[in-house]
Amino acid sequence: MYKKNDMKQFSGVWSLLLTPFNEDRTIDFAALENYVEWQASKKPQHLFAVCGSAEMNSLTIEERLKIATIAAKKAGDIPVVATANMEPSWLAQVEEVKRMSATGVSGLVFVSKGYADDQDRMFTYLSELSTFTTLPIMLYEYPGASPCKMEAQTYGKLVETGRFVAIKDTTCTMPAIEEKIAVQGESSVLQANMPFLFKSYVAGARGVCATPTTCGTHLFVKMWDEFSNGKVEEARKTHEHIILLDNAIDSGFNASAKYLISLQGVPMNWYTRGSHNLSPQRLEALDVWYGWAKDYGIM
């Protein structure tokens, strides 16, 4: 659980949770429980359930609530957050926020809901929705609801309300990342773009929230610990390994990430509710890459 009046606790590694599916594309809840425990064992600072990597746009509200409940229960002492504004209507989102707050999660995530073409509307919407929970809130520029990019000025204003503690930034350019860092105050700008992860840390970003954390949390914890302890050159080298992982899973994500999880000893099918399909050639490529990464202590 998060402590009151401690903004430093919102920095660090926010590891994303995938949704395991059976062959009929129902959720494999037994696999989910094992996966959450495995992710928590890597000791990230946070776990993020019901996220884009979890295919939240394909999940019903009841599925999202159950996933969040299981994650909060199985994560031990690692705080869990979950997206809480996926429903289409305002009244449904208000109810969703209240119900997600009651699942046992430590914080909520609000997506920008495709309102980036009207920053004033985005600010008002997020500010008003925040009044229906007492939990800390992370913001998420969710590409699944475009336009999603939040201007730095808007983020700064939201931070000033005292209700928002972090943002998953998906702008993917250093100038835009630096603009948000300049107004983050005591909040945490979390980087989702892997090529710029090291540079964003140097610029003042306070954490990471990115797709490769679904199957490589240990690398991100290692890099964060190295950078936080002044071992900058070691962190830069670990970033190189993260780039290799990112490239390995990029084709067919998130099916490829699920397969890498299974190779690490956590039973999980690679099935998704999307169109991803891992061919025999792709599976062989992942086998070869994982064997090499394991030999060199990367995975």
How do the helices and strands line up, and which of them pair or pack?
Layout: E1 12-16, H1 29-41, E2 46-49, H2 61-74, E3 80-83, H3 90-101, E4 107-111, H4 119-129, E5 137-140, H5 152-160, E6 164-169, H6 174-182, E7 188-191, H7 197-203, E8 207-208, H8 213-228, H9 232-250, H10 255-263, H11 280-295
Parallel strand pairs: 1-2, 1-8, 2-3, 3-4, 4-5, 5-6, 6-7, 7-8
Structure description:
- With 299 residues, the chain is of the alpha/beta class.
- It has a single domain (7-231), classed as TIM Barrel (Alpha-Beta Barrel), CATH 3.20.20.70.
- The protein is 45% helix and 11% strand.
- The chain has 11 helices and 8 strands.
- The protein has helices at residues 29-41, 61-74, 90-101, 119-129, 152-160, 174-182, 197-203, 213-228, 232-250, 255-263, 280-295, and strands at 12-16, 46-49, 80-83, 107-111, 137-140, 164-169, 188-191, 207-208.
- Strands 1-2-3-4-5-6-7-8 form an 8-stranded parallel beta barrel, surrounded by 6 helices.
- Strand 7, helix 7 (197-203) and strand 8 (207-208) form a beta-alpha-beta unit.
- Helix 10 crosses helix 11 (280-295).
